[in-house]
Design goal:
Number of helices: 8
Radius of gyration: 23 Å
Number of strands: 7
Order of helices and strands: HEHHEEHHHEEHHEE
Helix content: 40-55%
């Protein structure tokens, strides 16, 4: 199982995978797992704690001082692969099968409007360049790499819906209409990653300037 920041066979990766499978672990458990010293285990745990990936509690298991027991934080779950794309693709396929493509497009439009509402609170400015800069910052903060080219072209360098869009081109149309609502300008698609391009190009028409 690949982890976003750690290789599966690294000490940190082994600790995270062990905790996900077993829920909790003591330092002794992790010494046996990794075959390294207590000091070395503590160093790896300190690193993961500093990243906000581990939490601890004290547990008594007989006489003597309480032991620290380590477990994953909710943030650590983000490191593990998810099947969201598969689930969404199957859901859209089922909607199209039961309700038809027109109904699917209408539902995606509704989703796009909700996304636009979220983005609009973070995108403002009297001119298009300022709004594009705010939109870029908002997308980048969500892990979507974006560039703004002169002439009003928004380039999305990695599709946030890549696997879903391969089967449902209407996802690209949803994104285009969402950008229109956020920027307040007509937007055209001039090539997409889905079509084999390096990036998705959204050209803003500047109708109001």
């Amino acid at each position: 199982m690949a982890l976003a920041q750690y290789t599966e066979d690294s000490p940190a990766g082994k600790i995270l995978t062990y905790l996900r499978r077993n829920g909790e672990a003591t330092i002794r458990d992790l010494e046996e797992l990794l075959g390294i010293s207590t000091t070395a285990v503590r160093e790896h745990l300190a690193h993961l704690e500093a990243k906000g990936l581990l939490t601890t509690r004290q547990a008594r298991g007989g006489p003597g001082r309480p032991r620290l027991v380590y477990s994953l934080t909710p943030r650590a779950e983000d490191l593990f692969p998810k099947e969201y794309d598969t689930l969404v693709t199957l859901l859209l396929r089922e909607i199209a099968s039961r309700e038809g493509e027109e109904r699917l497009d209408a539902l995606l439009d509704a989703v796009g409007r909700r996304l636009a509402e979220e983005y609009r609170s973070q995108v403002s400015g009297a001119d298009l360049e300022e709004r594009l800069a705010h939109l870029r910052a908002t997308l980048e903060a969500r892990g979507i790499p974006v560039e703004v080219q002169s002439g009003g072209t928004l380039q999305v360098l990695a599709c946030p819906y890549h696997d879903v869009a391969q089967e449902h081109a209407s996802v690209c149309s949803m994104e285009r209409r969402m950008f229109e609502q956020v920027l307040g300008e007509p937007v055209q698609i001039e090539g997409t990653i889905r079509e084999g391009r390096r990036c998705c190009n959204f050209q803003i028409a500047r109708s109001s300037e």
